[in-house]
Amino acid sequence: MATTRSLHLGTAARRNIEGYLFISPWLIGILAFTLIPFVFSFVLGFARWEVGTPPEFVGLTNYQQLFADEVFWKSMRITTTFVILSVGLRVAIALTLATLIHQSSFARRFYLAGFYLPVMFSGVVLALVWGSMFSLDYGVINDVLRHMGITGPGWLTTPTWAMLAIVIMSAWRIGGMTVIFLAGIEDIPFELHEAAQIDGATPWQRWLRVTVPMLTPLVLFNLVTSLIASFQAFAEVQILTGGGPYNSTLVYMLYLYRQAFQYFNLGYASALAWVMFVLVVLLTLGLLRSSRSWVYYGGVRI
Amino acid sequence: MSAATTRAGQRRPHTLRGVTRMGLRGQRTLGRVARYLFLTVTLAVFLLPVYRLFIMSLMDVPDAYAVPVRWWPTVVRWINYVDIWTKTNIARSALNSTILTVGSMVGVFLSAPLVAFGFARLRFAGRDALFVVVLATMMLPGEVTLIPLYIIYKQIGWLDTYLPFIVPAFLGGGAFYIFLLRQFMMTIPGELEDAARMDGCNTLRVFASIFLPLSKPALATVGIFTFIGGWNNYLGPLIFLSSQTKMPLPVVLAAYRDLEGGFHGNLVMSAACAAVLPCLAIFFIFQEYMVGGIALTGIKG
């Protein structure tokens, strides 16, 4: 691979320079827009900084305040509930849909495109659409319920229903996950199904004993990525419920946004961000660790 | 995720049709009908909000607020789409959205392939360690850097300009795109590269005349995702911009909803529909690349 042109520099040095030249845009970008802000954010967590005044080092005060902050704990509980319900529901729906679409011999593209469509909607439009679906009197959902003789709940005005509303709204965007699962199902060797069938496995058993184990790496991938994304849910919740009623849908990012950009407690909000970051890292590592016992990597469990 | 990767590319019938025992026939047909029925009903439920959005965008105010809900407008008002253009400042925000989106697309197209090529095909000290950093930043939740970036942008006078959205795009354009392109470039046969080197091409030529053209499918995927990401970005503009005249569509739509009183302003829905339209158009034209791209990152991750 090495070029034969002679230069003063050795081949290795030349290769290094060339390599770094190619990745230099990323190197500058990662330093300026990720690593420096990342470290800065950590430092800010130990400062009090209201806009207009110079920052002041306050040690662990932000964190102490945070752990005594009732709204923080409430937001934590809400986010946990939301993440578990949303991620669980989305993985379940996507897996079911991918299986069914895979088994269909015609109109697969049509179904796939249909289920993928909502991914095109921005968080804002998502919230606008679902706002009109969930509305107490003018909403489509309660209208359908009315036709069935049920009086629909105040989706956006009752705490429990509001939580359910944001979960349902988030479950609407499962197109990406479905595509990933579908691609995974299509990569399962036919021989495995054949062998199972010769052994007398029913279609349901084949799904449970062949398809699902072979898909576990993708389940892990989807769990991790949607977990991270769900923790960051913001636009759609802010517009649909604004965190209400009574802060019942105050997801973490919304609380962070309020602290940072409405109350301008930049130090306190940085501490909030770091708690979230550590939590997401721990959860991801936990998932990866647990994967050893449930993710199937082609023949060997590692 | 090696299990999936090693078997990639095999083609086979997608259902088992080997068994021909007559007794199973009826059951099978029944199962098939049930499957299509289930898929169709689920899809209808999924598309109901889309239908609602579209149909409300054609209503007048009394229709939009009708109880019981009106599933079809009494008068179809296409004029709503003219009204949002003439009576609101949506044209201005659409232009803003276009500037933001096109700016970041140009940046990503210019920088991400270069970086991806470096990681995929060049050997240099520390490459693999640095690539781990790329992967790690893909997992980094954006909110951690949000506040410091706000402060930094404020210091260097970038607040209320489009620079925070465009400059980072020129610097690699995000870990996800680098990752996606790198995965794709890894699959391009090395013989092509060797042949070009024999012919005296330097690395830049190899990149520009072999890898760039061959990466078109992956570049299309990256372009689509950049477009949708930029067009739909809400949090960034909300925080980094302050002039109303500079706001892109999502922020304006959100504010407009408050002005018009709730989720039932018919014109809000027309505006929302209009805002979604470019993304839908791209989706229908480039479906192939989107689906391919998602599958590529998902499986080979």
Question: What overall geometry of chain B do the principal axes of the alpha carbons give?
Answer: globular
Q: Tell me how many strands of chain A there are.
A: 2
The number of domains of chain A is: 2
Mean of pLDDT of chain A: 88
Give the number of helices of chain A.
Answer: 13
Portion in strands of chain B: under 5%
Low-confidence stretches of chain B: 1-22
User: What is the string of SSEs of chain B from the N terminus onward?
Assistant: HHHHHHHHHHHHHHH
Q: How would you sum up this structure, described in words?
A:
- The complex is a heterodimer of chains A (302) and B (301).
- Chain A has 302 residues and is mainly alpha-helical.
- Chain A has two domains: 47 residues, no CATH class; 231 residues, MetI-like fold, CATH 1.10.3720.10.
- In chain A, 71% of the residues lie in helices and 1% in strands.
- Chain A has 13 helices and two strands; from the N terminus they run H-E-E-H-H-H-H-H-H-H-H-H-H-H-H.
- In chain A, a hairpin with a 7-residue loop joins strand 1 and strand 2.
- In chain A, helix 3 runs parallel beside helix 7 and helix 10 runs antiparallel to helix 13.
- The model of chain A has no long low-confidence stretch (mean pLDDT 88).
- Helix content of chain B is 74%, strand content 0%.
- In chain B, helix 5 runs antiparallel to helix 12, helix 6 crosses helix 9 and helix 14 packs antiparallel against helix 15.
- Chain B has two domains: 59 residues, no CATH class; 219 residues, MetI-like (MetI-like fold, Orthogonal Bundle), CATH 1.10.3720.10.
- The longest helix of chain B is centred in the first third of the chain and has 35 residues.
- Chain B is mainly alpha-helical and 301 residues long.
